Automatic annotation (TrEMBL):
<dbReference type="GO" id="GO:0016491">
    <property type="term" value="F:oxidoreductase activity"/>
</dbReference>
<dbReference type="InterPro" id="IPR017927">
    <property type="entry name" value="FAD-bd_FR_type"/>
</dbReference>
<dbReference type="Pfam" id="PF04954">
    <property type="entry name" value="SIP"/>
</dbReference>
<protein>
    <submittedName>
        <fullName>Siderophore-interacting protein</fullName>
    </submittedName>
</protein>
<dbReference type="InterPro" id="IPR039374">
    <property type="entry name" value="SIP_fam"/>
</dbReference>
<dbReference type="InterPro" id="IPR039261">
    <property type="entry name" value="FNR_nucleotide-bd"/>
</dbReference>
<dbReference type="InterPro" id="IPR007037">
    <property type="entry name" value="SIP_rossman_dom"/>
</dbReference>
<feature type="domain" description="FAD-binding FR-type">
    <location>
        <begin position="1"/>
        <end position="111"/>
    </location>
</feature>
<dbReference type="Pfam" id="PF08021">
    <property type="entry name" value="FAD_binding_9"/>
</dbReference>
<dbReference type="InterPro" id="IPR013113">
    <property type="entry name" value="SIP_FAD-bd"/>
</dbReference>
<dbReference type="InterPro" id="IPR017938">
    <property type="entry name" value="Riboflavin_synthase-like_b-brl"/>
</dbReference>
Amino acid sequence: MFVRGRVEDVRPAPGRMRWIRVGGVPGLDWTPGQQVRVHVADITAARTWVSGAFMNALRTYSVWDYDASSGVMELCVMDHEGDGPGARWARTVRPGEGVVFGKPEGPFALRPAAYHLFAGEETAAVPFGAMLRAAGEDEAVHGVIETARPEDRLPLPRAGELTWCHRGDAPAASSAVLVDAMRGLDLPDEPGVAYVAGEARTVQAVRAHLMRERGWPRKSVLVKPFWTPGKRGME
């Protein structure tokens, strides 16, 4: 059930993101858009169970890229500030250290569609990068990606085909900026498939816009709430 690898590199990414490259993991069955559960604490240690910290010992991260032949997996982790176990692991992990994680999982992946629509903020940009990389050149893509500032943009494939919006110092939670940008997006009359990820309340607002204002069927809107203020354990 668990995979063991070794951290090869840790370096800054745009904004509050951090690249973490893990090697020594060939042959994983990974679909772009999927995630892994990283053991940010030793779940075999007695102190993890005695202290009741087991549920805080796992953190879920989307995979930015993976090369099965070389066995190298690239994560891109956001620093959510605070002093939680995930934040501490991402800030302190160094090349040469071992890392344990679960096999890639999750249904958040490309589906056959007339076109693909992406909507989300910085945390969503990580799986979006993998999914955009996997989309065929003849497959139409649209989308809105929100960041705090222009310099916070991840280097997404086909970035020129996406709309970018910036919230400045406004919170990413319940983001009216992203929803308003979606309203202004010029889309084909027929629905495609939408991939909506990020903060839970913003994800719900984007889905409501697509279904109520644009008439998209629920089955055409895939949502993935990664986080929301004050709540732990979301994926």
